[in-house]
Amino acid sequence: MSRASIYDLLQQRAQPVVEQPVVVEERSHFRADRLRLLDGVALTAAGVLAMGSVPEAARVELSEDMRGPDGFQLMACAVKEVIPVGESRLRRLDPKALRLHELIQTILLDALMMLEALPENGRFDIVLSAPLRSGEAASLLLEQIQQAVAETEYGERLGDIRHSAVGWDPHTCLAVSESGGHPHVLWLCADSLINATDVGRLDRRGLLMKASRSVGLAPGEAAVALLMQRVSEEDDAESASGWRLDSAIEQEHAPRSSRTRQGGATLVIKDLLEKSWPEAAADTESEAPSRIVMDALGVSGSVTDVAGPLTDRWRGIDLTDNGVSVDRWCGWPGEALTALQLLLAIAPLGDGESALVLNVVEERSSRGMALRSCAVSGDGAAAGEDAEGTSANGEGNAT
């Protein structure tokens, strides 16, 4: 990360245009089932992920510090370089909080550069999603972020700033409070599973990759910043830029570990695809998503469960050419999963392309989220969609 002035850095990055020239006052009447994703950047073990720039997958390596319950070294995907933070209070409150602070501080300059796309004098909110067990630690991180923003030209334009422990569901996480909020929101997500506590949780769920079990998830970490726009209830077509994100489709099912290999899992994925990406009208051509982002294909059986229904639905689709699996790309990022999936989905896309995000690792539910290009769909107006046709989102736990 460059140590140059943030004002110099702001001039170096081409910014997407947000076509909303007027300043919108604080309000609370935003759609609960729809967001618009405009821009993003992420720090991962694979490198820095940004619009138009997707690094090659990270190499899973043996951790020097962590060992599994079997006593052998664990495979992990750690971020190589972060900005060191000398914050002794965080180490005392929660050792993991210090690592999250380092990840966030490393990505923060790039995150703030995205604010260049805001309308002139437009205000914005910040939501931090990070699994912090200490309220004091959360307050310290928010204070540091607020201070960093205050040192830029955007300091006086910052509205609400708050913490959310869970980053699984963007619509719930970014919903405005009763006091209202602003149309644009900078969503910061961070998590690190490179520690004994989170490794133990993965192991108890039967998901940990270890010497005695070659399939599973390698602990990872990530910090993600997404520039989102809340959609007004009065005007659902405020901008032709970005990607429309409606509430997730969640499919509940029998425990994954208890199902037989007689097509049960395949039927779940098939049904999920039909609901997440409905067929087009009879007189129009049904287009496949340009990109599919999975949560984990390293879990036993998931490749077979997903590949079959995908090729049945879209014969030209291929997970190798058209998709990516987060666990194989940068390790398992915990609560940063959803935000990272969303950015991985749109980063390589053109303005007219759309993507599908799938989550199949949860034991009792699977999830699908469609990212539709606003340039093609007219944010729902041209497609003739209505809010009543959007399913309620599901909730889960990405860690």
Word description of this protein:
The protein is α/β, with parallel strands linked by helices and 399 residues long. The chain has 2 domains: 196 residues, no CATH class; 131 residues, 3-Layer(aba) Sandwich (Peroxisomal Thiolase, Chain A, domain 1). The chain has 12 helices and 14 strands. The strands form 2 sheets. Strands 1, 2, 5, 6, 7, 8, 9, 10, 11, 12, 13 and 14 form a 12-stranded mixed beta sheet that branches. Strands 3-4 form a two-stranded antiparallel ribbon. About 7% of the residues have low confidence.
Summarize the structure.
Residues 238-262, 380-399 are annotated as: Disordered. Residues 390-399 have a biased composition (Polar residues). With 399 residues, the chain is α/β, with parallel strands linked by helices.
- As a percent range, the share of helical residues equals 25-40%
Largest sheet: 12 strands, mixed
- Proportion of strand residues: 15-25%
Alpha-carbon Rg, integer: 20 Å
Q: How many beta strands in the DSSP annotation?
A: 14
Could you spell the SSE succession in H and E letters? HEEEEHHEHEHEHEEEHEHHEHHEEH
| Bulk shape | globular
Helix-strand category? alpha/beta
Taken together, the total number of domains comes to: 2
| Total of helices | 12
**Low-confidence regions:** 20-24, 281-285, 380-396
Kindly report the average pLDDT value. Answer: 85
What distance lies between the first and last C-alpha atoms, to the nearest angstrom?
27 Å
